[in-house]
Design goal:
Largest sheet: 5 strands, parallel
Strand order of the largest sheet: 2-1-3-4-5
CATH architecture of the largest domain: Orthogonal Bundle
Order of helices and strands: EHEHEHEHEHHHHHHHHHHHH
Low-confidence stretches: 345-363
CATH topology of the largest domain: Hypothetical protein af1432
Structural class: alpha/beta
Strand content: 5-15%
Radius of gyration: 34 Å
Distance between the termini: 77 Å
CATH superfamily of the largest domain: Hypothetical protein af1432
C-alpha cells in the first residue's frame, strides 16, 4: 500500500514517513513541495494521500483539487493534517473530497489506528474492484463465446442450404460482404455492419422448403413455379424468427424482406419505402448486384458498368435511393471483394434460380 505524504515542514514529513514505515505492508511517498507532486502526475502511483493543509504555493484543498483533475486519482482517499480547528476550514476540506483529519501535533497511536482502518478499507475496495474487473472480463468472454456460437450456427445453416442449391455457397458469402460494405457506407455502426454481414448469407435459407422439382428445375420456371419459389422468403422467416439470437432474428428479417421493393411491388408482403427493414433494403441491392454480375450456365454475366447503371436507374422504384447512394459510395470495397471471391460457372446445365428469374423480369 503506497501512502503519499505532502508537508512543506521537513521535520513533520520525516515524522509522518517513520509512522508509515511502522504500518505493515505500507510504503511512504514523501514530498515537501506540492509543485513537485503535481509535476509527478499522472505517473505517481499511490493508494492514500495525507496532505498538510497549510502550505505555500498550494494549500491542501488547492492541491487536492488539482490532483482530482486526473481520472486515476478521483477515488483515492485523502486525509488532511491541520492545526486549525476552525470548522470552516474543515468544511472546505470535506467539500473538496477529504475523508478524514489528523490534528497537529499528530499523535502516533491515533495515526496508526486511523491509518490501519483506512488501509483495511482501501484493501477491501481494491478487492471489490478486482472482482468487478474479473466479472466484467468473464461477462465479456461469455458474450464473445455466445457470439462465436451464433456465427457458427449461421455458417452451418448456410452450408446446409447449399446442399440443395450448390450455386448459392459463394453467392451468399459475397452477398454478406457486399452488404457489410453498403451498410458501412450508409453510416451504420461497426457492430451493425458486422451483424448484417453475418446474417445476410441466410437470406435464401428458405429454399430448403422449396420442392426439388421447382428448385432444381432445368429451364425457366412457370408462373406457378415462380410463385412457389417466392415462398422461400416466408419459409426462411419461419425457420429463423423465433430464435433468441439477435443475429438469427436479423437473418429472419432479411430473409422475409430482401425481395421487397421500394415502390411496394415486391414480395412476399408488398411492403414499401421505410416499412421495409433497412437490412432487407441493403441486402436487396447486394443480392441483385451479385446475381447480375455472376455468370451461370443459363446466362452470361453482366458487366459491372451495366449492373451499376441498372441499380442506379431503379433507385426510387426497386431500391431505396439512400441505399443506392451507399452502394455507389461502397463500390471500391465491393470491387475488391468481387476480385477476391471470383467464381467459375458450373459446366452442368442448370435451371434458373429465383435471382435469374428476377433478372429476366427486371430487363
Amino acid at each position: 500500500m503506497k501512502i503519499l505524504l505532502v508537508d512543506d515542514n521537513k521535520t513533520n514529513l520525516t515524522f509522518l514517513t517513520r509512522l508509515v514505515a511502522k504500518l505493515e505492508g505500507c510504503t511512504a511517498l514523501p514530498f515537501d513541495n506540492p509543485v513537485d507532486v503535481l509535476a509527478a502526475m499522472p505517473g505517481l502511483n499511490f493508494d492514500i494521500a495525507i496532505i498538510d493543509f497549510q502550505m505555500p504555493g498550494y494549500n491542501g484543498v488547492e492541491l487536492m483539487s488539482e490532483i482530482l483533475r486526473f481520472d486515476g486519482y478521483r477515488n483515492k482517499p485523502v486525509v488532511f493534517v491541520t492545526a486549525d480547528g476552525d470548522s470552516a476550514v474543515r468544511m472546505a476540506a470535506l467539500n473538496a473530497g477529504a475523508i478524514d483529519f489528523l490534528t497537529k501535533p499528530v499523535n502516533p497511536l491515533e495515526f496508526q489506528a486511523r491509518m490501519r482502518n483506512l488501509v483495511a478499507l482501501v484493501t477491501a475496495q481494491n478487492k471489490l474492484a478486482d472482482k468487478a474487473e474479473w466479472l466484467r472480463t468473464e461477462v465479456e468472454k461469455a458474450v464473445l463465446e455466445l457470439r462465436a456460437r451464433e456465427e457458427e450456427i449461421i455458417e452451418r445453416l448456410s452450408i446446409a442450404a447449399s446442399y440443395k442449391d450448390a450455386e448459392t455457397a459463394k453467392h451468399t458469402k459475397r452477398v454478406g460482404c457486399y452488404s457489410e460494405a453498403i451498410a458501412s457506407a450508409y453510416g451504420l455502426d461497426h457492430q451493425t455492419c458486422s451483424d448484417i454481414r453475418l446474417a445476410s448469407p441466410m437470406h435464401d435459407i428458405g429454399k430448403v422448403a422449396i420442392p426439388d422439382a421447382v428448385l432444381l428445375k432445368k429451364g425457366k420456371l412457370t408462373e406457378r413455379e415462380f410463385a412457389s419459389m417466392q415462398t422461400h422468403t416466408l419459409a426462411g422467416f419461419d425457420i429463423l424468427r423465433e430464435s433468441k439470437s439477435g443475429l438469427l432474428r436479423m437473418a429472419a428479417e432479411i430473409a422475409a424482406s430482401h425481395h421487397e421493393r421500394w415502390d411496394g411491388q415486391g414480395y412476399p408482403s408488398r411492403l414499401s419505402g421505410e416499412k421495409i427493414p433497412l437490412s432487407g433494403r441493403i441486402v436487396a441491392i447486394a443480392d441483385n448486384f451479385d446475381a447480375l454480375t455472376t455468370a451461370r450456365p443459363y446466362k452470361e454475366a453482366w458487366s459491372v458498368e451495366r449492373t451499376i447503371d441498372h441499380i442506379r436507374e431503379r433507385a426510387g422504384s426497386q431500391f431505396d435511393p439512400k441505399c443506392v447512394d451507399a452502394f455507389l459510395k461502397a463500390l471500391p470495397s465491393i470491387m475488391h471483394i468481387m476480385a477476391e471471391n471470383r467464381e467459375e460457372p458450373s459446366r452442368e446445365p442448370a435451371r434458373p434460380t429465383d435471382e435469374a428469374d428476377a433478372f429476366c423480369m427486371a430487363i
